[in-house]
UniProtKB/TrEMBL annotation:
This is Protein-tyrosine-phosphatase. One of its GO terms (molecular function) is protein serine/threonine phosphatase activity. GO terms for biological process: signal transduction. It catalyses: O-phospho-L-seryl-[protein] + H2O = L-seryl-[protein] + phosphate; O-phospho-L-threonyl-[protein] + H2O = L-threonyl-[protein] + phosphate. Keywords: Hydrolase, Protein phosphatase. Residues 63-210 form the Tyrosine-protein phosphatase domain. Belongs to the protein-tyrosine phosphatase family. Non-receptor class dual specificity subfamily. Transmembrane segments: none annotated. InterPro entries: Dual-sp_phosphatase_cat-dom, Prot-tyrosine_phosphatase-like, Tyr_Pase_AS, Tyr_Pase_dom, TYR_PHOSPHATASE_DUAL_dom. GO terms for cellular component: cytosol. It comes from Letharia lupina. SMART domains: DSPc. Residues 39-49 have a biased composition (Basic residues). Gene3D superfamilies: Protein tyrosine phosphatase superfamily (3.90.190.10).
Amino acid sequence: MVSESRYRGGGVAIPCYFSAAKLKHEWMKKGFQQLFKASKTHRRNRRAKPYASQMASQNPNPPISEITPGLFIGDVGSSWNANGLRQHQIKSILSVNDEPTAMWRRASFTSIITQDRHLKMFCLDSSHQDLLVHMRRACEFIETSLAHGGVLVHCVQGVSRSTTFVIAYLMRRDRRGLDEVLADVKLKRKVRPSENFMTQLGLWGQMEYEIWEDEEKKVPKAPYAKLLKEKGLTAVLPPSAAEIAFGF
């Protein structure tokens, strides 16, 4: 069952003055809402591929674009297009989306992209999604993977989430500012990171590509801590068993 506990800070505060009857009513109501949400999620997952295809058809970009030698941004369809993966000599994929797909379990895919070369980050395209918490890992994955061949970073359309991680990587690699890197990426693909993700990219550069004060990653740097408090950002936890069954 889908639960708010999947998100950091997802607890529900119940005032102590609630009567037992009202408390029971509230929990029954919440249980029904969660059941309805779970049903919607299940239906969405069943039609994940048609939805992705519909979104791709509305995308002004080609399925895949080479941003720098060997580094590509693409839509979700490009991640399972065996011919395209071979053509561009892609050996590693970073998936940054919330639409599970069983296409990644097909032999035509696994024969090209092995499990250890496919990093999946379950991220929402929302105003509350924290991408900063994933940026270091994503950058390190891209950096090490480029030594083995082409790297594809994709979300659903290859416009916002995937672009954010590619920009974060290029900022860190070249020690360049956000505006300069974004301008270069736009020469290769029509991209548009969301306002939330642009804010996070700005902080990424401001904090010199590290969001933690300590090696244990328990104390966030002041700009990151301020953003978490003001925006209420949440990092999505690893996918459930049900999501894994669909490809995550």
